[in-house]
Each structure stands twice: as C-alpha cells, then as structure tokens.
Design goal:
Blueprint (H helix, E strand, L loop, with lengths): L1 H13 L8 H33 L3 H15 L4 H8 L6
Helix pairs in contact: 1-2, 2-3
Length: 91
C-alpha cells in the first residue's frame, strides 16, 4: 500500500515541476518530491524490521528486503530526472 501511495504522491508533487522556469528550482522541487517518496517506502521497511525483532518471523525480513530492493530501483539517474522534470540537464 505504501508503494502505491508513494508513487501517487510523487506524481502529484512532480506535476508542477514541469511548469517551473529555472532549472535550479526544478531540481529543488524534484529533490523534495523524491525525499517524500523515499520516506514513504522506507517507513514500512523499518516497521517490518521492528516486527521481525519482536516476533522472529522471517516474513517481515522479506518485506523489508523487498522495500530496500524497490528503493534501489528508484535511485535517480540522469535519464529519470530529465524525464520527470522535462528538462535537459547540463553535461
């Protein structure tokens, strides 16, 4: 549920970025949107780790591992940033 919510909130926060004129403003807004997205994915992972320590059930480790792998796929690359903010970044 958190993964879906993080994507929806990120898209809503990223929409106005395209209307901004200056690249520095776009990158600051993009950074804020990414931070919110990463936090919403990280929280269930931390909660799953705490549940594992309390119960000893390995299922929670799998949940945490999945969230961490998903965070790894969300890492910002030059191409992703350019596509999200609709701007050409300087070399």
């Amino acid at each position: 549920m958190a993964l879906i919510t993080s994507n929806m909130i990120f898209k809503k926060m990223a929409e106005p970025i395209r209307m901004t004129l200056h690249l520095s403003e776009k990158l600051n807004q993009y950074r804020s949107a990414c931070t919110v997205r990463y936090a919403l994915v990280e929280c269930p992972s931390l909660f799953a780790i705490i549940c594992y320590y309390m119960s000893g059930n390995l299922f929670y480790i799998f949940i945490s591992g999945f969230c961490i792998l998903y965070l790894f796929t969300l890492r910002p690359t030059r191409l992703k940033v350019e596509m999200d903010i609709q701007a050409q970044l300087p070399s």
